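Appendix C reproduces, verbatim, an entry submitted by the partner laboratory led by Prof. M.T., so that reviewers can inspect both the input and the predicted structure.
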Amino acid sequence: MAVAIALVVVGAVPGVAQPRQSPSASSLRASLRAGLSHYLSTRGGAEHISAVSLAVAFRGRRPSIDLAVGRTRYRGGRPISLNNLWEIGSNTKAFTAVMMLQLEAEGRLSIHDTLAKWLPQYPAWGQITIRQLLNMTSGIPDALAQRDFLRAYAGAPNQVFSGERLVSYVAGLPLETGWLYSNTNYVLAQMIIERATHQSYAEQLRKRIASRLGLHNLFFGATRYPGSVTARLPAGYYYIGPDAIPEMSPQFGKDQSRYPVSAPASGGIATTPADLAKWSRALFTGRLLAPKQQRELERLVSTKTGRPIKKTTRADPAGFGLGVSQSTAPGLGTVWAYLGSTLGFRSLLTYVPRSGTAIAIDANSVPQQDHLPQFGTSVYQTLHRVGVS
């Protein structure tokens, strides 16, 4: 399942050094590996992680850097490897938005269509458009944040939640105003994709994106992952204290990696950091969408006001497009950055337009105090110092 952890505004990096001559590939790998090991050794206990993995994909023919450190279970398990998969949480939303925009380019729907056209069974939301679902301005509350859902999940995490059941947790609730992060939007988006194509979301994902880009390590859990996928997942720990979310206290400290996926179009993909970074470069270099739809994908609203903005700025640093997010921070400038999370995994994906570099970082817990964004900043800083960020 995906939890409502959407945006990351990567923190300031004061005094970033000017780029200098690039080092050898081996020394850069060694430096990044040392950073991974340091993060694991200093944050492993506080964040209850046993492993962290990193991929950096560059523009042109420069080989990618792929690294993993740690073990598959907290204080145990096998050494982690590049073959291990990670749940990417809400980074899945960009895949959903791309498929919707591809359908628009084919004339099969429009992002200006309303729910009255595609999902008339929800008349209270009839005037909401597909665009509003995808950019989080629909006002529909988040089903996965409702106490009744959390209690139901925590009491029986092996159960499968259908899309209709998830929607039922918020049907009848008043709409919010402005920008509101809500996984329900993408539950509804999955319903629309399947109604428009008469095929499953998983089949559309395979044909439209995974096969096209050669993402051989990308898997989707429509309800639960097959054993061949879960065997490649490290344990993933829920580590948010009972005082913060008391409904989830029965799951505190427990491995969530073998449970079914809730809200799959919102957070149901598992993959390697290497494939995730490869996807990010394809996404932001226009390989998947026609120019009109690419512009729609990147058209932002402010997460502060919910109003359209041309780009993020220091004064308004976080913006949301269609399943993608942009942030502006000192020392970084403007980047596309998204922190996705499930109940057991975090996945930080950053794309730097200036250099065309994509950085994917995964860790196997969702903790109360998350330092993964700061670590992402340090990775960027390492790359920037040697002129390859």
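Residues 94-213 form a domain with the Beta-lactamase fold (CATH 3.40.710.10). Additional entries are available on request from the coordinating office.
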